[in-house]
Amino acid sequence: xxxxxxxxxxxxxxxxxxxxxxxxxxxxxxxxxxxxxxxxxxxxxxxxxxxxxxxxxxxxxxxxxxxxxxxxxxxxxxxxxxxxxxxxxxxxxxxxxxxxxxxxxxxxxxxxxxxxxxxxxxxxxxxxxxxxxxxxxxxxxxxxxxxxxxxxxxxxxxxxxxxxxxxxxxxxxxxxxxxxxxxxxxxx
Length: 188
What we know:
The strands form 2 sheets. This protein has a 3-stranded antiparallel β-sheet with strand order 2-3-5. It has 6 helices and 5 strands; from the N terminus they run H-H-H-E-H-E-E-H-E-E-H. The chain is an alpha+beta fold. It has 2 domains: 13-60, no CATH class; 75-184, Alpha-Beta Plaits (2-Layer Sandwich). The protein is elongated, with a radius of gyration of 27 Å. 24% of the residues lie in helices and 13% in strands. NDH-1 is composed of 14 different subunits. Subunits NuoA, H, J, K, L, M, N constitute the membrane sector of the complex. It catalyses: a quinone + NADH + 5 H(+)(in) = a quinol + NAD(+) + 4 H(+)(out). Keywords: 4Fe-4S, Cell membrane, Iron, Iron-sulfur, Membrane, Metal-binding, NAD, Quinone, Repeat, Translocase, Ubiquinone. One of its GO terms (cellular component) is plasma membrane.
């Protein structure tokens, strides 16, 4: 295999000096500053920014109206319209979760229950929101559509323990979902 020798491009005098490049960067920054002083910058009207520029005043103004349709927020569990758990503890979401943020302990449905034909339900369902990367794989793999990514971006806590959402918290923030649930299908 022949050896190919590459020639470096020769730099001009202005490229060899650092000062002209710094000056060009300064002019670009100065141009943006004057545009924002003359009026709102590009994009500020759509964000309802206050004052100059596109800065959003966060606690008072929220991104809720600006979130795109494909935005993936934090996961939550949902119930059906009769407040029954949709989750069947198949543990597919736990197995597919890349950062291993989901932990499920399956539990049996009591035999005296009307829906005892259903094999199981989660005894414990925990999602560590610190580990969660909001990839949406848990939502895609769920056969019963029991887990959804909601459009929530402000997930806070004062300790690590507060950032682990248990089953009750996940159902509280998830709410109800209307639609066919295979788990409760009479024909199954």
